Model the fold of this input.
Amino acid sequence: MATRVDPNFMQSLEKFGVKDWKGCFHCGNCTASCPLIEEEYQFPRKVIRQAQMGLKDRLESNIDLWMCYFCGDCTKTCPREANPCELMRSIRRYQISAYDWTGLSKKFFTSQKWELSFFFGIAILILILFAIFLPPSPELWTNPTRFINEQGGVMINNMVDGISGEKFLYIIHYGDWIMAFVAGGLLITNILHMFYLTLWRDKSVQIPFYAYFTQLWKLIYHFATQPKLRKCDDKLYWLGHMVFMTGYTIMFVLIVGMLPRFQIEEVVPWYNWQRILGYYATIGIIVFLIPVVIGRFRKNKCKLKYSHFTDWHFIIMLILTTISGILIHIFRLAGMPVATYFSYVIHLAILVPMIMIEVPFSKWSHLAYRPFAIYIAALKKAVVKKKQPEQVPVFA
Amino acid sequence: MSENDLTGIFFYHPGNGHVSNLDFEELIQFSGTFKHVAVVWDSEKFPLWDKKNLESEIRKFNLNRLVIAGYDTGMIKPFFAMVFSTLGIPVENILLADFMEHGALDKSYTDLAKAIVVCGIYNVPFEDAAKPGESDVCPDTLVIGGGIAGIEASLEIANGNQKVYLVEKTGTIGGHMAMFDKTFPTLDCAACILTPKMVDVGQHPKIDLMTYSEVKSIEGHPGCYKVKILKKARRVDLSKCIGCGTCSEKCPGKTYSEFDQGTTLRTAIYRPFPQAVPNKYLIDAESCRYVQGEKCGVCVKVCPVPDCINLDAKDEEVEITIGNIIVATGFKVFDAKRAAQFGYGKYPNVLTSLEFERLINAAGPTGGNITYRNKDKKGNWVFTTGADVPDSVAIIHCIGSRDENYNAYCSKVCCMYSLKLAHLVKEKLPEAEVYEHYIDMRAFGKGYEEFYERIRNEGIHIIRGRTATVKSINGGLIIRSEDIESGRLLDQKVEMVILAVGMEPTDDARSLAGMLGIEVDKYGWMSGINNISDSVNTRSGGVAIAGTCQGPKDIPDTVVQASAAASRVLQNIIKGKASNGISSLSFSDIEKRAKELSTIKEI
Done:
């Protein structure tokens, strides 16, 4: 494959957050100072080189980038203050947009307008759907006691006239499924695209079929425990991220997988599994979010120093979702049906667009891309070179 | 004023990577006040880089003359010249007013920058307008610093039969060059070149050598400076000491030797090195037991010359009157402890290059054998003969140079001396593996590239890629770097690491420069009037700079610059007049003179 140098490519990366891309003079300090580096994959220098040269193909097929967890050791000693850590973050954003076949991801990363319009579009759609199909019962205001059960809590599924509690629950449940299938479907196709770009596009190699199964444990292991993040210096960050990740996963399973058993009418005592899991998830998300927000303002760590607008969008959406979720719970326990209804609607109007933007198109997709990248890297190790047609020597 | 004298000014200050700390807004406003200036352009605001656009603009304002003011103005002149010639205007009417060339580097030089622009506007060369006056000059000369630059300059002037005062801070002249073993690229012995010159200085009837002395204050005006010199108490009478060394043998006070870069110990009464000039002893107050208040005085008892050692001697101050000054204060090496990732100060066998120079020197602590650093009986880490010999040595380039965290500049000599050290290691230990880790190999001088080729063929592993960390595992050192040419990650086990530390301005360079009115760049290197065509004369009259106090440079360049400085001084002495220096001129002086000289008449 001929190599085409495109010196203007780096400028197009500026919208993804690259600030100074001229600084690097390729001394190799960053690669050698990285605690995660291994013989098979190397970054950041190689990645920076590919970006500086505008080798789009190689950059898209570069799986090494995903092994970086942005500890910032490279930036600390970089002799050119070229900020390899920030470059890596920005190029990761570019890669996410390259994996996305719809092109929406690129729009979201490079234009704040696009992301905000998409967000508000879906949010308004949710509000309209509620207004038309699940409007609040007028008796919420006139006769609030009708919606309170024996334990004193709001009966959350019975706030719409003419729709039984069970029916309401299943409408939301199937709505959640639709959301999950659309977001998940997009994510899965993007992952397949990632496989194509990084692995299948190169026709000269063949991956033995059994490797897909023998290496599968890596995918699960790395998804569940993030052992590479633990290798970076900051162990507390790993712990926080772990709590956050498990909390989020639990919440996701509770809401998408088993809503009929999670969002029940009666107010169960605090030690019931629904409430314990719910509290764990909420606390897990908050415990991680607060230091992250503080860190992004203080800019003391590489991970948090260089905030792209999509980082802030994600954090704000997540905070709003969490707050509205907590409010539902409080209003419900306090027996305030009107507040419960509206906080519930607002919660969904933020949650759904957040999932739709973040999971397939934006930052949050790293939850899938990262373990898959490790999986692909493992597959690459098992690669078998296809036999090349014999080359005729030109100069005998 | 005829219509033909309408002038346009183009301010060129590309933002990225250039020095443009000047207040261009103010300059633009200022230059707009002249009557025959039709238009002022700012390179950042007006898209002139289109020929047609520029042509129409020039026509619109009916310009006949253009001044390009800013940095690197010569680079963009061809573009304007092209447009001028298509319009039929003589290309000579494009004038350059370069701030860099005349030393207007930052905000504090706004007046100078204005003067440069005014000269452009009046079509007068800056050098003609900014001609400082002259004063009678006193024939004696002060040279500050006794390294190779100071030695060379002193000898040149003294050989011209003029009186020179050479002031040196330490107990001997010779400076850093005396510490080196060999010089690159010819691998001549450094001492063989230097020591004859040192002896010449010591014996020259026209040179008044003041070692262990410092310049305290400078007063007066160009042509006649009154300089107060602090002669620190040497405690040994220079005229009586015979240099026998009996005192040093018995002295109980011990400390790390400065001359040997702390690789070995010396006594409190010491001679810096055997070829020192003056070849006499001196007492270091900090390590002398008597001076520190303990009961001692052994040296006085054993000294064979009566009244030679006076332990209670006090510092003295002398005042001299001189007409010219040459500053040759040299450099200090980068403190490798600041770059903690390389483990200097933590692991005994991580050395700076200057320490290694001493180690490998035949007059060094081990007689030129390369050995490990060991703890002696009293717990001091020193090099001694008979210790184990390393079988692999890594040399890491660019420590403290080309690094935004410390010094962004290139120290110029490290690549070459590293290659030299690699050669010397290979010469002394043919079995040893030697690795060089570099970022870019800068072999810039005559015979240097050939030297690099020669070293490459000697079986030394020259690896492109800066080392990131040095760690200690099981007594050995592990260095981690990326081999950029093959794209591999390298973890190498070596037994000794040499850090090629860069040059830094000396600690007191700034205060001395302030005393003398020499300008200093942001790192602390002194600057001449202009870095390209006059790096020797300074803005102060009768003050010249030479050697590494002006910026990192190797020995040949230093010697050449020292000779240049001496020639400026001799020029002044022979003429009997010294320039008052640009700093004696005010902006209005230059403006007035430019108006007088100008052919452009105002309305």
Remarks:
- Chain B has a mean pLDDT of 90.
- Chain B has four domains: 3-130+586-597, 133-232+315-330+506-520+533-584, 233-314, 333-504.
- Residues 401 and 407 of chain B are 5 Å apart (CA to CA).
